[in-house]
Structure formats: structure tokens, C-alpha cells
């Protein structure tokens, strides 16, 4: 087998890469930094060079789990991250080598009933849980003895290179600070996204976002949940309520619920939706509600927001990859919200 060192300047596409991974060999024990072989991506897959990742309570919960069908070892945890596309498999057109991306465990195939629905964001094309890749149920990690290492939530970001399905990849702007972008993979976005898709559009406006009188609101998707958001935003006195939907019939429907401006992305010509929204709101909407359950639309919503989102406040610690077990200590001891784990170029920030 022609292996390539992940830190070398050799062309790596199409070849297995040997790199460092933080492997959990036994439940509850410290992760071990060791050499891992990462296979090249197959069809509809992307191999990503991880720039930084962070630790979530979900990682810790599964790390502690020592019994049951989903407690498998050895395993590479991690599901909040940002990285650069190293190579892509056959049929991948959405991203290419060099793109900055975030892997997301909430997949979007764009084809199944739930992905097409405005009321759900739980893709049902693939199994809800697997310790390997979703299409062939085979892992892409092995140790230096050739033994398989299990995946986690279709992401496994505690490794220098990982392979994910294209349905779990979102391209982002390379100008966005990667430590902030890392949080969009799960923690900062998941709560609101799930709340909206559970039919709590009104509650999201009143109790979560607490939209103020005179603020501007952008709503992506004018299904039942999106219309509920519009109605609540109107009741809260929002000065401008922008509805975004591909269905032109939603314009008149939306206005009945409080939408003041309507955008059909197909009619934006050469402009991005986020650019149109920023022009309408003098720099970006105060609140953006993603009511579709689409990873791609999530990025559009983020780019349409006014730059006042305090992502810095979620980052309480930063460590190097070699010190990844410190991140576990910080979280378990209640000292941390999110600890950014830098794969390289760590500057010693605390």
C-alpha cells in the first residue's frame, strides 16, 4: 500500500494518509495520540484536513459509555470542527480541493422526504447512527496494525484528516475566523435549529431570540414553522420581516402572517441572498431564523446576520491537539463552555 505522510508536501489525493489521531481505546480513559491511516474518499465523500475542533458534551457522554451496541472501541470522537478540503471522491461537485468547510452530523441528502420537508431536518436516507460511513457501513480509519478504528457521528474530528459524506459538508467563507466557524458545526446552531423544527417557531421568537420592537428579522423557509416565526415577529413589533422561499406563492401567504419583504433566491440574479438581505437591512438582519433544516441554508442565514453574534463568548479555553485531554478535564470540571483544540500552529492562548 502506498501510504503518504499527512504532513508531507507530496500529493495526497487518492492515497491513504498517515496522520495523528486522538483515539479512545477504552471508555472513560484518556485519549491516546497515535498514528492513524485515513483512507482516500470514495464516491460522494470528502477528505478534510482539520484545522481546529472543539469538545462537546455529546463527545464526553459517549466517551463515558462502556456498554450497549453503540459503545464501540477504539474510536475517534469529535463532531465540531472546521477544515480544508484535501481531496474529493467521485461525483462530488459541491466542494473542491482547497475549500474551507465545516462537517455537520445533521446530514442533508436533499432527496429524502424529510430533507424536502419544511417541517423536519432529520435526513432519513441513511441510518440515524453508525460507527462507520453511511453509504457502505465501512470505516475509513485503521491503526498501524491494520485494525479498524470506529467513526463517531459521521464526523470524527479528533484527527488531522477525516473522511465525511458530502451530505455532511458545508462550504463556508475562508474569511471567517476558523475558531468561531468551528462552533457552527453543532453547539451554537443546534439548539435553535431543533427548536424551530419541532414546531416551536413562536417560542423561538418570544423566548429564545426575544425579538425586540423595531428589529429586523429574516426567515428562511415559509412553511408552517417559518410563518409562525413571522407572526410572532410581527406581534413583537419587528420593523422589517423578510421571508425567503423558493416558492413564489409563499409571497402572498407570507404577507398575511406579517412578512413585509419577500425574496425568491431564484430571482436574485447574480447576487447572493445574504447580499440582498444586507442591502434591505443596512448591514444584515438582527435575527435570522433557519426554518428548513438545511445545512447550506444555515450558512446563508449566518451570512445574512448583522455582525453582533458573540461567538467569542462561547470560547473559554484553547489547547493544542497534543493536550486534547485537558479539554475533557475543563468540561467535566465545569470550567469550560467550548474549548478550541488546534491541530497545529497553536499560539498558547488560554
UniProtKB/TrEMBL annotation:
Biological process, per Gene Ontology: formaldehyde catabolic process
Gene Ontology molecular function, alphabetical: S-(hydroxymethyl)glutathione dehydrogenase [NAD(P)+] activity; zinc ion binding
GO cellular component: cytosol
Family to which the UniProt record says this protein belongs: Belongs to the zinc-containing alcohol dehydrogenase family. Class-IV subfamily.
Name of this protein: Alcohol dehydrogenase
Entries under Gene3D superfamilies matching the protein: Medium-chain alcohol dehydrogenases, catalytic domain (3.90.180.10), NAD(P)-binding Rossmann-like Domain (3.40.50.720)
PANTHER family: ALCOHOL DEHYDROGENASE, ALCOHOL DEHYDROGENASE-LIKE 2
Domain spans labelled Alcohol dehydrogenase-like C-terminal: 225-306
One Pfam family of this chain: ADH_N
Metal-binding listed as a keyword: yes
Annotated keywords: Metal-binding, NAD, Oxidoreductase, Zinc
Domain (Alcohol dehydrogenase-like N-terminal) ranges: 45-172
Subunit relationships: Homodimer.
Cofactor(s) this protein cannot do without: Zn(2+)
Amino acid at each position: 500500500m502506498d501510504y503518504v505522510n499527512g504532513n508531507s508536501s507530496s500529493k495526497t489525493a487518492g492515497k491513504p494518509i498517515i496522520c495523528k489521531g486522538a483515539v479512545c481505546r477504552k471508555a472513560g480513559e484518556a485519549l491516546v495520540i497515535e498514528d492513524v491511516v485515513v483512507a482516500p474518499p470514495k464516491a460522494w465523500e470528502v477528505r478534510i484536513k482539520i484545522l481546529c475542533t472543539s469538545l462537546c458534551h455529546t463527545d464526553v457522554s459517549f466517551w463515558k459509555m462502556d456498554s450497549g451496541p453503540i459503545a464501540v472501541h477504539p474510536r475517534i470522537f469529535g463532531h465540531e470542527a472546521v477544515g480544508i478540503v484535501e481531496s474529493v471522491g467521485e461525483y462530488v461537485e459541491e466542494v473542491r480541493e482547497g475549500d474551507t468547510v465545516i462537517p455537520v452530523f445533521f446530514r442533508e441528502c436533499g432527496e429524502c422526504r424529510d430533507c424536502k420537508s419544511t417541517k423536519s431536518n432529520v435526513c432519513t436516507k441513511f441510518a440515524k447512527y453508525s460507527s462507520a460511513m453511511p453509504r457502505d457501513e465501512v470505516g475509513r480509519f485503521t491503526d498501524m496494525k491494520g485494525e479498524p478504528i470506529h467513526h463517531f457521528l459521521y464526523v470524527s474530528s479528533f484527527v488531522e484528516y477525516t473522511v465525511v459524506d458530502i451530505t455532511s459538508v458545508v462550504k463556508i467563507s475562508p474569511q471567517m475566523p476558523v475558531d468561531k466557524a468551528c462552533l457552527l458545526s453543532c453547539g451554537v446552531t443546534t439548539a435553535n435549529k431543533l427548536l424551530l423544527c419541532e414546531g416551536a417557531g413562536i417560542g423561538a421568537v418570544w423566548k429564545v431570540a426575544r425579538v425586540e420592537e423595531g428589529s429586523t428579522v429574516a426567515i428562511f423557509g415559509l412553511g408552517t414553522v417559518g410563518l409562525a416565526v413571522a407572526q410572532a415577529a410581527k406581534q413583537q413589533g419587528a420593523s422589517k420581516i423578510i421571508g425567503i422561499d423558493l416558492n413564489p406563492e409563499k409571497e402572498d401567504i407570507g404577507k398575511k402572517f406579517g412578512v413585509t419583504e419577500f425574496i425568491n433566491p431564484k430571482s436574485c440574479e447574480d447576487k447572493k441572498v445574504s447580499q440582498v438581505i444586507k442591502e434591505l437591512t443596512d448591514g444584515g438582519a438582527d435575527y435570522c431564523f433557519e426554518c428548513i433544516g438545511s445545512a447550506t441554508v444555515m450558512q446563508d442565514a449566518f451570512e445574512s446576520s448583522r455582525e453582533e453574534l458573540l461567538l467569542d463568548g462561547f470560547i473559554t479555553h484553547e489547547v493544542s491537539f497534543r493536550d486534547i485531554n485537558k479539554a475533557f478535564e475543563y468540561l467535566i470540571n465545569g470550567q469550560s463552555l467550548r474549548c478550541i483544540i488546534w491541530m497545529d500552529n497553536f499560539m498558547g492562548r488560554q
